[in-house]
Amino acid sequence: MLKVGSSLLADLSGELTERNARPLAQFIAASRSAGRAVVLVSSGAVAAGRARVPAATSRASLVLRQALAALGQTRMIALWQGLIEAPVAQVLLTHDDLRNRRRYLNARNTLLELLHQGCVPIVNENDTVAVEELKLGDNDNLAATVAALIDADLLLIASDVDGLFSEHPLRNPAARPVESVAAITPAVLAMAGEPGSVHGTGGMRTKLEAAQKAASAGIATILFNGADPTCTCLLPAGKYRGTCFDAPQTRLAARKYWLGHASAASGSIRVDAGAAQALRGGKSLLPGGIVGVDGEFARGDIVEIVLAEPHGIIARGLAQYNAGEVRRLAGHHTREIETILGFSYGDTVVRRDDLVTLEGPA
User: Fold this and answer.
1) By 3-state DSSP, what share of the chain in percent is helix, strand and coil, each rounded to 5?
2) What region, left, alpha or beta, does residue 327 occupy, with left being phi > 0 and alpha being psi -120 to 50 degrees?
3) Residue 25: in which H helix or E strand, if any?
4) 3-class SS of residue 4
5) What is the chain's Cα-based Rg?
6) Residue 155 has what pLDDT?
7) Which among 263, 280, 267, 273 has a CA at the least distance from the CA of 325?
8) What's residue 135's pLDDT?
9) Which string of b and e fits 188-222 if b means at least 16 CB within 10 Å?
10) What are the distances in angstroms from CA 327 to CA 177, 275, 289, 302, 330?
11) Which H helix or E strand runs over 125?
12) Going from the N-terminus, what domains does the chain have, and what CATH number goes with each?
């Protein structure tokens, strides 16, 4: 997962430039050649739009900024497509999309399918319709949210600073760079300044918030200077120059812990012994092993999976279909899903990455 700030893409006039984008595009190409898929969260649309409207100022009204985002979005996508050989795909999201469970899953499935098709998704906030999201640094938090959404291995934040320092380096020449942060504590947050201060408005605090959010999902974050080509060149080799924010636990462990302890819906899915054995072996839940559904749940809810005979809870996971749809699919082959429902969210009722097995009957 790579997030690129607008300061790296726009010159002083607001026009988009390839100067910093080209080395980052080369990193994306190197990652793809090594078999690592990359999702890009790119700022720069509002800045690019402002360059198209000379009368617009940095203190433009919200409505004007939304119009500038619409003007600049195509230019930003065109910049990246001109530098990346693979097809790029524009994905516009708002926080509402990620709070709504159904839309959250739709966004996840779309991004994963784009990666499966060999594309480079370019994610941005839908600034044209967003209101509170149009503020400095919010794409940092969006990047962390999307990283958790797609189960990213690593979050990279490319900025115009060298990383986190013990103090503001412009105020204190003796400030030391911080190479590694084990956990984001109040003392670490204090290094970025308080929100609303001169230091805090520089965007460092939102980067720490993003790293904290990613860490809670088991994803480490690296903050580096994307304006320094030598920093970017280190990344394909697994090296970095900047600040690494560790994740206290693995991504899978964080997700499994959440699935095992979060509140479940009132409904459950009953499965046969064959399906139970497959789930314990790390497989997904398919319609053919389902014998019944109890209660109600929506797509995206956490449901309990129980063994029909002898009765007992064996797993919990995120349902890809709602209770009524699962009832209709029970006992059928995956190839029949679209015929039965008239649509398909995929071959699985619960994906193995969205499932945790529990102690239950043998």
Assistant:
1) 40, 20, 40
2) alpha
3) helix 21-33
4) strand
5) 23
6) 96
7) 267
8) 46
9) bbebbbeeeeebbebbbbbbbbbbbbbbbbbbbbb
10) 57, 16, 12, 16, 5
11) strand 120-125
12) 2-248 (3.40.1160.10), 256-357 (2.30.130.10)
Q: Which amino acid is at 76?
A: M
What is the percentage of the chain residues whose pLDDT exceeds 70?
89
Q: What does pTM read for this prediction?
A: 0.76
Q: Which amino acid is at 93?
A: L
Sheet arrangement for strand 120-125: 88-93, 120-125, 40-42, 2-4, 154-159, 220-225, 242-245, 180-181
| Cβ atoms of 192 and 168 closer than 8 Å | no
- The pLDDT of 48-56, averaged and rounded, is 76
What angle (nearest 5°) sits at the alpha carbon of residue 204, between those of residues 230 and 138?
105
CA distance 78 to 39: 16
Q: Give me the sign of the Cα torsion angle 357, 358, 359, 362.
A: negative
**How far apart (Å, rounded) are the C-alpha atoms in residues 302 and 275?**
18
User: Which token pair is 66?
Assistant: 């939304």
Least trusted range by pLDDT, from 149-153, 273-277, 292-296, 306-310 = 306-310
Residue 43's pLDDT band, with cuts at 50, 70 and 90, is confident
DSSP 2: E
Q: pLDDT tens-digit profile of 220-267?
A: 999 999 999 999 999 988 889 999 999 987 777 777 767 776 777 778
- Amino acid making up residue 18: E
Q: What is the pLDDT of residue 195?
A: 46
On the question of pLDDT at 8 being above 80, the answer is yes
Distance between CA atoms of residues 31 and 249, nearest Å: 24
- Report whether the peptide linkage leading into residue 310 is cis, meaning its omega lies within 30 degrees of zero: yes
